[in-house]
Design brief:
Blueprint: H1 3-20, H2 24-35, H3 39-52, E1 75-77, E2 83-92, E3 96-105, E4 108-117, H4 125-140, E5 149-154, E6 160-165, E7 169-171, H5 172-178, H6 183-202, E8 205-206, E9 215-218, E10 223-225, E11 232-233, H7 241-249, H8 259-262, H9 269-285, H10 297-306, E12 319-320, E13 323-324, H11 332-341, H12 353-364, H13 376-386, H14 394-434, H15 448-460, H16 467-483, H17 487-500, H18 508-524, H19 528-541, H20 551-565, H21 571-587, H22 594-608, H23 611-629, H24 634-650, H25 652-669, H26 675-690, H27 694-712, H28 717-732, H29 736-744, H30 747-752, H31 757-774, H32 779-792, H33 802-818, H34 822-836, H35 843-856, H36 860-877, H37 880-897
Antiparallel strand pairs: 1-2, 2-3, 3-4, 4-6, 5-6, 7-9, 8-11, 9-10, 12-13
Helix pairs in contact: 1-3, 4-7, 6-9, 6-12, 9-11, 11-12, 13-14, 14-16, 15-16, 16-17, 17-18, 18-19, 18-20, 19-20, 20-21, 20-22, 21-22, 22-23, 23-24, 24-25, 25-26, 26-27, 27-28, 28-29, 28-31, 29-31, 31-32, 32-33, 33-34, 33-35, 34-35, 35-36, 35-37, 36-37
Length: 916
């Protein structure tokens, strides 16, 4: 909103306030005088009054009541347990207003930036959709130089809001001027901006409104990229009519808009390259590359599209806003870099923001910049500047010139190769964005998964593609697959990337990061030993990396965590090791690793059976993540889910509200169309069942199943696993026929996909579920299904899933006893007792089965002694529910031997048992 518009709105609002205090019969005369013949102002005030005039005593329920701005000390309530306390307005844009507010969540208070849709005018569906899209975009971006999302949701009056990290800083141009930065310092600052925008592009986000006011610099000198209000997010409906309408409205800032934006043409990453160049121009020159008279948008558009800008070094005497910007000396290399970003044709600019940042780093290192097509003398001069103390004589310099001519062609070829690689990688990203263009997809919505699949198939046909380029593109696709929860595809694609990656130092960091990503994907899929193997490979590859940063600690934490999950770790050693790792992370100020380190510690305690200690450690993980990223940030949601899992082990009923809160925040912040949403729905359903609310769990399972099917298809492992979970819930409700029908449809896909341990586990779990549907219906079939499940797993517990295997083995043994297959039952029971020794609180099940087996075999005296011993053990501990089972078995064993009434057992008195 322009200054004139803002002033008129404020004037109209003030008059409306005053008029509402008058009797309706006095308002017309009052406004006639106060508006002074300004008919437009008079009409706007009348409209405001009509909109805000209460029809009854509850005018705040009106959908236009919020045309009054919140003032200092005002509080708005949202549909969550948190409220926001307004402090002051920060800024106002085309459709939104941003306030400094205090976020109140219980006793925790946090200053944030709260963005609301503009207060003047009704909220169209287009505006609402674009506003929500901004929240979705921020949710996927996690970079130190990008403002992070804290929460997104809806106020109680129906307006959407976005709560973001509050950045107390200056626009980058003002910061540079206020701190009298020289050209070199400004370039150093801008390299960080390029890193943030490049990160957004790698995550398939175009900003499209880069300008100084959207790049704030803190007092510590850290730039923060903000305001993704008209950014483009591929996989959250950007092909919709709403997004296309926003494009048509051209919600851009003309001084920094590219020629293609001015012309309404298709946009790619080259658009952000241009806008960054326009900002960099102003950072260096003190004014934008093109100027026009106030309101002369056509003149400005013509200049942007047709005229060439002056060099920044020649354009530093313009007065802007009444202030003369300080003149700095701009080197010719920076002139060349800036002008390359501002070329009219997108293909003539830098092929990516990463390449722009690389050229700035070349300038800072006194190396030849790609933007200049210099002579041998130019390149030699840059070499001398780099090595001025090594060049001692004129003769040495002449020899250098001569020698340089020999290698000049090699350098040119190398520069061209780097440029070609960058161009092809960026071309892939731009083609990826184009997949969502309705004109190319016949108006159909193209999901990220479909676009990624298309990209993989397209790469297969490009035989001549440079290996390094292929590796980079494959890695990008692999990371995206993992982000969608499609880990099997992600692992395969990342492994393919490794085969094309070079072995030189330049590729070393990429190799380590890819290996870590593969390890993480294996861990997520439950293949913990595979994860450890890839962490080991990453550790070996790390030897070739000079600047290791936090990679060693990432690997160390990952290995420890997966050792715990694979039940390989000696927990008495693993827990102190994890505590030591946490201290190391603190000492090195690697705060971003703390949440994962605390999570690993929590999982170790969980494996040990100390559920309270696990919950406490996972609470620290949540708090650490919330402190840096926000309570509702996507990464924090993952730690909250782990915390809720620990609470479930302590008390399922208390875990239910935790899971419901996570689901609500996930839907609001991230959306409901990704695999992680299906995972948390499944967690809630399992918890509801554990708390005895089985009827309530079934629709949650069904919802989770449908989300997983929509994301990954009917043959996806997790979708098949969810089908099994829902079937078990139906079995426990006595709806066995429904459960069997669900499960039979999944068997062909499961049988065809048994490559990994986790695939086999899902297949085994489905067979187990089918067995459960046959109990009491066809017990022979039930035993057959349980035996098949045991065989699929190779008659041993999978890593990290001992509890699942214990249940399969228990049901198999129980069915064998019931069907009088006593010899087989004895062998199964021995294995069951070995497995139960690894799980706290499960031994009673195996002991009870042992008594049943002895009774079935007619070994009544042994059954009597065992039942009595087990009863007395549990009675002494106060475990009366378990003791009651052994009491009944004891009586049965005694009666089988004699008609006499059995001697009474010592009474059991309930005691609270902690930990299990």
């Amino acid at each position: 909103m322009g200054d004139a518009h803002s002033e008129r709105y404020r004037q109209a609002k003030a008059l409306a306030h005053a008029a509402l205090d008058l009797d309706p019969t006095e308002r017309s005369a009052f406004l006639t005088v106060r508006c002074g013949g300004d008919a437009e102002l008079f009409n706007e005030v009348q409209w405001l009054i009509a909109s805000l005039e209460p029809d009854d005593s509850s005018f705040l329920d009106s959908d236009l009541a919020y045309l009054f701005e919140p003032g200092a000390d005002d509080v708005v309530e949202v549909d969550t347990p948190r409220n926001y306390h307004f402090i002051r307005r920060l800024e106002e844009g085309g459709h939104g207003v941003v306030y400094l507010a205090e976020r109140c969540n219980g006793d925790v208070r946090q200053q944030i930036a709260l963005k609301l849709l503009h207060l003047a005018g009704r909220l169209s569906e287009t505006m609402m959709a674009q506003f929500r899209a901004e929240g979705a975009i921020l949710a996927r971006l996690n970079h130190p130089n990008i403002v992070h999302l804290i929460e997104a949701g809806t106020l109680q009056d129906g307006r959407p809001f976005i709560a973001m990290e509050y950045v107390d800083g200056l626009p980058i141009t003002d910061y540079c001027s206020a701190h009298s930065l020289n050209a070199r310092q400004r370039a150093e600052l801008f390299v960080k901006v390029c890193a943030a925008v490049s990160y957004a592009h790698q995550h398939l986000v175009l900003h499209r409104d880069l300008k100084p006011s959207n790049i704030l610099v803190t007092a510590e000198g850290e730039p923060k990229l903000l305001d993704f209000g008209i950014a483009r997010l591929l996989d959250h409906g950007d092909t919709s009519a709403a997004c296309r309408t926003v494009d048509a409205q051209r919600l851009l800032t003309p001084y920094y808009a590219s020629p293609e934006q001015m012309k309404g043409q298709a946009l790619t990453t080259a658009t952000d390259v241009y806008s960054l160049g326009a900002v960099l121009y102003e950072v260096m020159a003190g004014r934008p590359p093109f100027l026009a008279k106030t309101g002369e948008t056509f003149e400005l558009a013509h200049s942007v599209c047709e005229k060439e800008p002056e060099k920044p070094s020649h354009a530093q005497t313009v007065v802007l806003g009444g202030n003369v910007n300080k003149v700095i000396s701009v080197p010719g290399d920076l002139d060349a870099i800036v002008l390359k970003t501002l070329r009219k044709r997108p293909e003539d600019r830098y092929t990516s923001v990463y390449e722009l940042g690389t050229d700035l780093r070349r300038f800072l290192a006194s190396r030849p910049v790609a933007a200049r097509r210099g002579s041998v003398i130019y390149r030699s001069r840059r070499f001398v500047q780099r090595n001025r103390w090594k060049i001692a004589t004129i003769s040495a310099f002449v020899l250098l010139i001569t020698g340089f001519a020999v290698v000049r062609q090699v350098q040119l070829q190398r520069t061209q190769l780097e440029r070609d690689r960058a161009e092809q990688v960026v071309a892939f990203i731009n083609n990826f964005f184009a997949e969502a263009d309705p004109s190319k997809s016949r108006g159909e919505t193209v999901t990220v998964r479909e676009a990624l699949d298309t990209s993989v198939h397209g790469l297969e046909s490009k035989r001549s593609l440079d290996p390094e380029i292929r590796a980079t593109i494959l890695a990008t696709i692999g990371y995206a697959y993992n982000g969608l929860g499609l880990n099997k595809k992600g692992i395969a694609t990342l492994q393919a990337a490794l085969t094309y990656l070079g072995n030189g130092p330049a590729s070393a960091v990429d190799r380590v990061n890819i290996l870590i990503a593969i390890a993480n994907a294996h861990s997520t899929d439950g293949n913990f030993r595979e994860a450890i193997a890839y962490y080991d490979k990453a550790e070996n590859a790390l030897q070739n990396v000079s600047d290791k940063q936090d990679l060693p600690d990432q690997i160390s934490i990952g290995k420890l965590q997966n050792s715990v999950l694979a039940a390989d770790a000696n927990l008495d050693k693993a827990i102190p090791a994890l505590r030591a790792e946490i201290e190391t992370v603190r000492e090195r100020n690697e705060e971003s690793l703390l949440p994962e380190a605390y999570k690993s510690l929590g999982l170790a305690y969980q494996s040990k059976g100390d559920y309270q200690a696990a919950f406490d450690a996972l609470t620290l993980a949540v708090n650490s993540s919330a402190k840096s990223k926000g309570f509702d940030a996507p990464s924090t949601l993952e730690f909250r889910a782990s915390q809720a899992q620990a609470q479930k082990l302590l008390d399922p009923a208390k875990a239910i509200p935790l899971f419901k809160s996570i689901i609500a925040d996930h839907a609001r912040v991230i959306g409901t169309s990704d695999m992680s949403y299906a995972v948390i729905l499944n967690d809630l359903a399992v918890t509801l069942g554990g708390a005895g609310q089985r009827e309530a769990s079934v629709p949650i399972y069904e919802q989770a199943r449908q989300v997983a099917r929509a994301v990954a298809g009917p043959e996806d492992r997790f979708y098949l696993q969810l089908t099994g979970n829902e079937a078990i819930a139906l079995v426990k409700l006595g709806r066995k026929a429904e459960a069997a029908q669900l499960l039979q449809g999944t068997l062909p896909a499961l049988a065809a996909h048994q490559q990994s341990g986790i695939d086999k586990l899902v297949y085994a779990h489905t067979l187990y579920s089918l067995g459960a549907t046959q109990l009491g219906v066809n017990d022979a079939n039930a035993e057959r299904y349980f035996a098949q499940a045991d065989a699929v797993l190779g008659h041993k517990a999978p890593d990290g899933y001992v509890d699942v295997y214990e249940e399969i083995l228990y049901q198999l043994t129980n069915a064998q006893v019931h069907n009088k297959h006593y010899g087989q039952a004895e062998a199964s029971l021995q294995r069951l007792e070995t497995v139960e020794a690894q799980l706290p609180g499960t031994a009673a099940r195996g002991k009870s089965l042992h008594v049943d087996l002895l009774l079935g075999e007619g070994k009544y005296a042994q059954a009597e002694r065992l039942a009595k011993d087990d009863y007395e053990t549990d009675a002494a501990l106060g475990n009366c529910s378990k003791a009651a089972i052994f009491s009944a078995q004891y009586e049965q064993a005694v009666k089988k031997q004699s008609a006499e009434h059995p001697a009474p057992l010592q009474p059991c008195v309930n005691k609270k048992v902690s930990g299990v």
